[in-house]
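Lab notebook, entry 55. We have the chain sequence and a SMILES string for zinc ion, and the next step in the workflow is to get a structural model of the bound complex before anyone spends time on docking refinements. Request logged below.

Task: model protein plus zinc ion, output structure tokens.
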Amino acid sequence: MSAPEASDPIDDFLASRDPTAWETSYNKKQCPDCGGLHGDTASRCSVCGWAPAAE
Ligand SMILES: [Zn+2]
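Result returned:
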């Protein structure tokens, strides 16, 4: 992901994050990459293929 001329603070905020874990939304797992919602048993995003980083 790159946005060479973007100086939007929201983009900066998103770019500075390191999405290694699920977001949650409406008690579901939400992909931090594409925003796809998944059930609690999901281990990776079936939409974009993102998976949480292994610790
Ligand atoms: Zn995704």
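Notes for the group: The radius of gyration is 13 Å. Worth checking against the assay data. Residues 22 and 31 are 6 Å apart (CA to CA).
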